[in-house]
Amino acid sequence: MKLLLHTAILFFMTTIVLPQNRDADINRIFANIEEGLPTGSIDRFSNYFADKTFISLFNGKSGYFSANQAYYVLKDFFGIYRPISFKIDNLVIDTINPFSSGTLRMSYRGIRKSAMVFISLQKYGDQWRISQITIN
Amino acid sequence: MKGIFKKSNLKWISLITILVLVLISAFAAPYLIDKKMWKIRLEEKLKEAETLVAKALDKKVDHLISFNNNVKNRIPQLLRENSLSTNYIVFVYEEDSLIYWNKEADIETPVRYKTGLPFFYDDGLRIYLTYIDTLVDKKNRFYILTSEILEQKYNLYGEESRISFSDSLSVEAGTNITIDYKNTSTKLQNGRYRTFAYKSPIGNLHCNVIIENPTLDSEINNLKKNIYTIQSVLIVLCFFIAIYILFGYVRNSNRIIRFAFWTLTIGGGRVIIYLLGIPSTYYHNALTDPSNFSSPFAFGFVRSPAEFLITAIAGTILIIIGSNYFEEHTREKPSTNKNLILFFVALIIFTLLFLLTLRGVGASIRSVVFDSSIRYFREFNLIPEPYILVMNLNILMLGFSAILFSYLLLSLLYGFFPYEGKNNYYKLLGGIFLFLQIAGFLFDYFQKNPQGTPQIRTTYISLFVLVAYVVLKNNPRQLKRFVLYSLLASILVVNLLTHYNSELEKESLKTTSIELTRNDENIYSFMVMQTLKQLNTELNDEFSNRMNARAFLAWNKSLLYNENVQSFIRFFYVDGKPSGSYLTNDNIEQLIDTRPLQTDSVVLIQTPNIFGDSKIIRGIAPVFKNNYKTGYAEVGVVYNRVNLSFAAMPKFLVKKRSLISDVIDPNRLVVVYLDGGILKSSTDKIKSDDSFINRLRQISKLKNSEEWISANIDGEEYLFYITEISGLVIGVGKEEKNISWKISDFFKVFFIHVFIIFMIILILSVLNYKKTLRLFESYKARLIAGFLVVSVVPLLITSVYLKNLIEVKNNELIKKRLQEYSIQIKKYLDNYSGRIKSELLFGKAAHDLSVNFTVFKKEKYFYSTQPYYYKSGLMPPLIQYKAHSEIEKRDKNITFLRNFFEGIQYNSFYAKIVNEYEEYILEINDFFNDISLPLSDIELDVFMFGILSLSSILLILLSTLLANQISQPIIKLTNATRSLSGGDLSIKIEGKYTGEIGDLTRGFNMMVQRLKENQEELAMMERESAWKEMARQVAHEIKNPLTPIKLSVQQLIAAYKDRSPKFDTIFDKVTNTVINQIELLTNIASEFSNFARMPRLNISKIDLVKIIDSVIDLFQSEKINVNFIKSSEQIIVEGDEQHFTRTFVNLFRNSVQAKAKNIIVDVKEFDNKYEITVEDDGEGIEEEFIGKIFEEKFTTKKQGMGLGLKLSRRFIESIGGTIELTKTSKEGTVFKIKLMKPKT
Fold first, then answer.
1. What CATH number does domain B1100-1236 carry, 3.30.460.10, 3.40.640.10, 3.30.1490.20, 3.30.565.10?
2. Is the pTM of this model over 0.90?
3. A63–B519: do the CB atoms touch at under 8 Å?
4. What CATH architecture does domain B832-932 belong to?
5. Of A72, A104, A118, the residue nearest B290 (C-alpha)
6. Residue B896 Cα, gap to closest chain A Cα (Å)
7. B691-709 tens-digit pLDDT
8. Tens of pLDDT along A19-33?
């Protein structure tokens, strides 16, 4: 009977609770990005940068950056291209590497611009990390 | 009121004024813009923008026309010399035939356009401003077309590198300006946009200019930014004034307060610079780019190479100041600790701090490697890009500071050592060496993540102790210490750099394996749908014009380009016929249908390809115009579980992502994976290696595991990271570096450090140019310079020649290979000539021979194995003019030229070919074909740095050694001669020299000996003669009063014997006479005494530094090292120059005779006096003699007169100073001289 109960709990954990935790983790990261990007607050999501994050920006900066570099590369970028608003339009989380895309509106020396943002996550060990940020 | 503004209060007034200004400016921004007047201001700004655009366009037209006129006058010369250097595009037509062009561009023949009128021309990817004029001579009509690119629609290397006239105008106007060159847009006149029609004053050029209304927010932001800049300047000014005021208070304080002041100044200065965002906020270049380096250390104090530089300079200066203060302190107040336990406590603290410092350097260098995109070992330039040079300087300063700090700790430890004397210090160093090695081992053993490697640690400790020994033994001057510490710092940091670079390379294998499998089907599907969505919004006008270019543009703007996946975009008319396409790779064509799925809604299809190893994911959407279906747009990608598309993409389209790893040279990278048990690889080398495949298969059985394996492939050692990701076993390997490769890596950075050290010395030399000039007067310096020139320069010339030679040979090889390809193609074409239509034949040749090439018919593009780059217009469909001219006009069969595309240089080989009686020009290049070279750049670097750099260092060492050997006796002889001329006859040149130098030194020593003997003999004779003369004089002078005394006494005796009644009178008279004569004798004695006194002093204001320097010079050749420490470059005292010189010569000579090896002369300045300490490490003075050293005729030397110190004291005291013996022991002696400062 005990065995049956334990098996049931384990089944419940693996089939219902764990995927929910997974989704919650992923959603939290994307929510932080969605909150941080409109104000250029990298701190909101910089904790989730992978050891090497691929960043591609429309100003030509592109490559794999360490978490420290990624933080300052984006900080500098948003220092020049000041974000006005950002909203996620697409969000796909039920896949191996969840991703989202949205439109970022910015101001550059008084010139308004918009760009497509693509963000993807990847699992490193038991942690979800941002593996790519493309602002195109 | 007047009193407040007196001079002494000015600094306070300026400080307060600036502070008030800072406060005012903080609140000023919102009040400086009158919001009510904004509408009027907005109108003004729009007008300004309109004027700006109109003027800029007018200017462009004006310049273009005037350039065209200029060209028109030079046509014959142009055709003859082909020497036009301009940014404009120039085409010259003779009737309809293109006869000259300076750049390859996709511009159609001028017959379609009116001449004499400027116009905009759109080739699909670029918009040109063009002007055509005609020139008619007796026979022909020429058309001269000049053109300038105004807009480049695609973007390969970033928005900022894209040519865009409208973007540059937008930046200048501070608002978005769009130019509709086709005049197709409707006039936007609303709250957000303003449109005006531009018409050029010359010709009929017109376009619509759409200006976005500037916003009030952006206006306020701009103003705030300006105010912030002003505030920054004010705060910096404020800081400097505050420091100046503070300096007035602390300048005469003790060392701790002065050090605290400098810490506050330098540290505070650094904080202010950081808070003001200098330089990152104001300058955006590679130096401030965080991708080149950024660390979160200290909240962003090292967030870019420039900020790291500022922090490193501040830290280094602080450590140098601290170190100097500490050195002064220990000299003045040496520690007198005799407690062994206290020493051991100090030793443990020293060891801990030493190892923590080493760990700190290790962690910093790790960050320098991992948090940077700079690859220090990929390429070499002695003078690299400024940001790379700065990073090299930064790490050198980091190492230097750490080493200086460690030596400061070591000096502290000496202070706690209970035993004195050099021999004991040497023993202490030996003990420290062993202790550090053991403690270092334990320190790393118990750490989770030790920094560096055991080899680096042991090597560093060994070199550190060795340098400490050299410093202790020779007590070198500051500059020599700087060089020693800097070289040690460089060796440490470069070793750490190479270590962490190899760690990074290993790490990148892991990243690469994840990266290669990152994109799954869902992401690919998303990218396809996203691109379709983007296309749908753009394809709302014409559907038929230049659709190949539109396909390329759509691809370039999409995620497909960013991800560099093998992909395609195609357009079809409504009947299914193709209207335009772009494919990243020609092979894709074989994998996809030629006709689209005719659908009324967006459809996503996934189909496996015929080989089954990949999948085509494509989306198709109908395109509507005014609710009427005009065709279809199709977007697709080729999906592989392992994305190896980087190997198939042309180099110029490869973004960093598809290089997979920017850490390792792609040529060193190998990717393998097992797909259904079958091995697939990015290289052919592995396919034949059965043992490797078997090993991989064994690993594949270990699910969810990762392994590192080494494998020998084609004679090269590779390191593989093997892992299993979602059921796929994938391995990423890199070619391992051999020892010569590692040596060459080391020297690549070490050389730059040596260059930096050399530059610092050069700057110091220029600043002290007088000393430098003196240095080069020396025989030794000239010899070293001569040897270096003779040995290193030919080596450098040889290496440069060799490098050039190899480059030339490589170029020749490329030429040869390309020529061989062309011969192969020609032979192939000859075989089939006339049997197959040209286009089909070229395709067949490309397929069968696996060679990429392009064929031109006359000057125009005809066929290419990479057609999509030509069809889209990305690559101009025009042959290079020079190639065309050589082959067509000069009837050459072949020619070899250098080409450029988007800044990338490549080599092209052109050859004339014939098929079906038609002549074509074949172009084969290394842009689309990989040519392997026998000696790659890496191998060349290994050779250059591994062997030549080692030889250079050996030559430099050998040159210095030889120069030293040759110059040493000459220098000794020169110094000895100077000493001799200064009156020092005890000088002797030591050392066993042979040959001419030996004869010379022996001759000199003999001469000095003879001189000494002669002088002694002469002195003895002079003394004898003087004594004789003196005796004669004394006798003579004494005789005179003695006679009257004698006569008087005789008279007195006679009177006494005669019992003379006048005895009393005679007695009085005689005694008076005797007393008078005795008085006379006393006077004579005083006169003699006065005569024997020292000569009169010649008192004047003299520079003590000069005197001590001259005495040091006299002792240059002696085996003694003199370290002269002075508080300033000029120390003025009142005294007799000769006597001062004699005093110091006496003290130095005594030190030499007490077998001292080092003398430290330290001059300290106090409020009203100077204290000069002369300290040696000789045998000291025996205790019984200590009280007698200043006595006359006291000496312990066989030939001494015993007058030196007596005379020195007499002289010093005569000018109001003191000289005393403050310390003497077997470890050395210290004399202290105190002199009053002259009254001003």
1. 3.30.565.10
2. no
3. no
4. 2-Layer Sandwich (3.30)
5. A72
6. 33
7. 777 777 776 666 556 788 8
8. 557 788 899 999 999
